[in-house]
Amino acid sequence: MKNQIFNGETYLITGIADTQSLAMYVAREIVAQGGKVVCTGLGVSPFHRQLSEKATAFLQKNYQDFQEAVSVGLGEVPTAVLDASLDESIEAFARSMADQGIKLHGFLHAIAMDKTIRQKEVKPLLDVSPDEFCDTMGVSAYSLIRIAHYLMKYDVLQPGSSICSLSYIAAAKVTFHPYRNISIAKAALERITIELADELGRKNGTRVNAIRFSPYMGSKAGTATLRESDLEISGEVSPLGNASPEDLAHEVVHLFRPGSRITGEIRHVDGGYNIMG
């Protein structure tokens, strides 16, 4: 039997929506390498106020799908509601982990939201409202800070941990798929990654990195924003073709590897797409 990377360390996995979510591939690889996972999904929480019936039904269905995906893909692992748009939800989750005596050695930030994308059509940036801009920024970027803040406040995230977030090339340049609003949030996410790498590295040796991944349509998030032609274009342009979810999982696990000194990196797992003009 080959040597495993982890020795029972536990990692928080956010962003699982279905069995094909990129976060699911990461979670499975962590378990395969001897680690443990705690998974969170979007659902109804005590901090949601004045929800409409439609919104309540959406959140309940989302959390049910999340739990079913985790059960099928990972078996019996701890799950919890986490709404990255609500500071109270993030703090309650961290407090719950502390109350249960769960110690985390890192987490995957795979959360993003952009209400300006509807039926694969992207709203012009000039028409994006202040609320739409700030909501996207809050969930897709600022939540990285808040999750780290509360996990450290309650001594859940251990010194020397590793944090990794998911980004993509649109954070740096206009791509074949015209992301607008969310690409700005991803650029902010990458800048937050670099600043936290300095701040947390000096604080207690915590590492912070981000990964730009190839376009991917296997999950709900991908099918909501991409077309098959987008994948064909990137696959043709990239010297090695599009990267696979397994490629991403292996890179995240590498960055989570205990004792590593890799931090402040914006890594590319995209078959070389980023080097092309």
Descriptive account of the structure:
The chain contains eight helices and nine strands. The strands form two sheets. The chain has a seven-stranded parallel beta sheet with strand order 3-2-1-4-7-8-9, sandwiched between helices. The protein has a two-stranded antiparallel ribbon with strand order 5-6. The model has no long low-confidence stretch (mean pLDDT 94). Helix 1 (22-32) runs parallel beside helix 2, helix 1 (22-32) crosses helix 8 and helix 3 packs parallel to helix 4 (130-153). The protein has 277 residues and is of the alpha/beta class. The chain has a single domain, classed as 3-Layer(aba) Sandwich (Rossmann fold). Helix content is 44%, strand content 16%.
Could you give the topology of this structure?
Layout: E1 10-13, H1 22-32, E2 36-41, H2 53-74, E3 79-81, H3 87-99, E4 104-109, E5 117-118, E6 121-122, H4 130-153, E7 157-167, H5 181-204, E8 207-213, H6 220-225, H7 228-237, H8 245-256, E9 266-269
Parallel strand pairs: 1-2, 1-4, 2-3, 4-7, 7-8, 8-9
Antiparallel strand pairs: 5-6
Largest sheet: 7 strands, parallel
Fraction of residues in H or I helices = 40-55%
The amount of beta strand, in percent, is: 15-25%
Question: Structural class, from helix and strand content?
Answer: alpha/beta
The Cα radius of gyration reads 18 Å
Low-confidence parts: none
With helices defined by DSSP (H or I, 4 residues minimum), what is the helix count? 8
**CATH topology description:** Rossmann fold
The total strand number stands at: 9
Query: Can you tell me the CATH architecture?
Result: 3-Layer(aba) Sandwich
Task: Identify the quaternary structure here.
Answer: single chain
Dominant shape: globular
Going by CATH, what is the homologous superfamily?
Answer: NAD(P)-binding Rossmann-like Domain
CATH top-level class: Alpha Beta
Order of helical and strand elements: EHEHEHEEEHEHEHHHE
The CA-CA distance between the termini, in Å, is 44 Å
Order of strands, main sheet, comes to 3-2-1-4-7-8-9
What number of structural domains do the residues give? 1
